Amino acid sequence: MTFIDEIKKSDADIYKGVSAEAIDAAEQQLGMKIPATYREILSEFGSIDIGSDEIFGLGVKGYLNVVESTLKERELAKGELDQYIVIQNLGIDGILIVVDENDNVYEFKNGDFKNLLSSTAEYILSLI
Question: Which end of the chain has the smaller Cβ count within 10 Å, N or C?
């Protein structure tokens, strides 16, 4: 079973997936490649809610939009997040969950990065 199937089987609230063109446009706005597993998640679901955990995505507006949230957080982080995509704001102590182009997932807080898991898919499955 793929991670996509596991997400579909879970209690996660999923949205409508977006086109490859929408993902390409997001890459242009972010100035970096979106890693393959996160790209697959965006294509299939757009965005995901798992209980109180909201995974930012595309096809949604406001803070749930990954481009809007990433650009805003990059501004606040004064360059420290320029090579990362913000996929979640935990809403606790300014902790963000970010991913790099190689699909490494980190917890970012006050300028410090803590490696969590090696892929966006693993991180999302850990929340289910």
Answer: N
The CATH number for 91's domain is 3.40.1580.10
Q: Per-residue pLDDT tens, the chain, 128 aa: give them.
A: 898 898 889 888 888 899 999 999 999 999 999 999 999 999 999 999 988 889 999 999 888 999 999 999 999 998 999 999 999 999 888 899 999 999 999 999 988 999 987 788 889 989 88
Cα 117 to Cα 75, 76, 78, 107, distances in angstroms:
25, 24, 25, 10
Q: At what angle do helices 120-127 and 36-45 cross, to 10 degrees?
A: 50
Q: Look up the domain containing 28 and give its range.
A: 3-127
Query: Considering only CA atoms, which of 128, 120, 126 is closest in space to residue 56?
Result: 120
CA–CA separation, 75 and 18 (whole Å): 26
Spacing of C-alpha 84 from chain mean position = 10
